[in-house]
Amino acid sequence: MFNHQHPRTMGQTIEVVLFALGLATAAMFFFAAEGAFCLVLAFPLAAVVGMCGGVFGRAIALRGMEPPSRTGLAALFAPLLVLAESRATAPLHEVRSVVEVAAPPAVVWRHVVAFPALPPATEWVFRVGVAAPLAARIRGSGVGALRFCDFTTGSFVEPITAWDENRLLAFDIVRQAPPMREWSPYRDVNPPHLAGYFRATHGEFRLAALGGGSRTRLEGRTSYVVEMFPQSYWTLAADRIVAAIHGRVLRHIKALAEEEEHR
Prior knowledge:
Layout: H1 10-30, H2 36-63, H3 70-77, E1 92-101, H4 105-113, H5 124-127, E2 133-139, E3 146-151, E4 154-164, E5 168-172, E6 198-210, E7 215-226, H6 231-261
Antiparallel strand pairs: 1-7, 2-3, 3-4, 4-5, 5-6, 6-7
Helix pairs in contact: 1-2, 4-6
């Protein structure tokens, strides 16, 4: 429509597309359909799709009803190849994070199994609403014990699947809290994508002795599935968020173990 009566430049066309997307984004925020953080994440993807549509529409308007050449079509739709990824079962992703602790594995292990409350989160990703880890507790010991990891949005329930003391703690995640609280001027914003579209499935802590046993290499692993399309885009953000959670937990365990060791 923008180019139908009078031809406009490519830049003007893209400006109108981005302005329309900005209005739609603002409307979704102020009418409590979405929170600010998710809108910020989604905007680049929407902008790419919108600009491709704007360029394609401009080409049609300038040519009348004559179809664009094959070469032109290929150029227009090249940025959309990411959207052509398979919609088959969502793949499993794994994030790994490592710290070195100035304490032996036996000391670190005690703080891996369960740990007291973490200090208030200061990282920006948690301040905008992403669920932040608070503490971990366990009921029982060994395989079959039930571990709970408490977050600002609720608790993750984690039955233990491997218990190799001072070496490996592994668990499945059978129930999880919402991944975030949307930042919004309204009290309750619950968009559908917060329910089931990100699923953590498995976690592990691996301990390895260093320096003759006086230090420990502590590795945290989390496996997860993202069922939002396109997965290749959303996993970029998910990897960063999971890594931030790992960092917060591993640093806390490191501080507790080193304090105990040097007490």
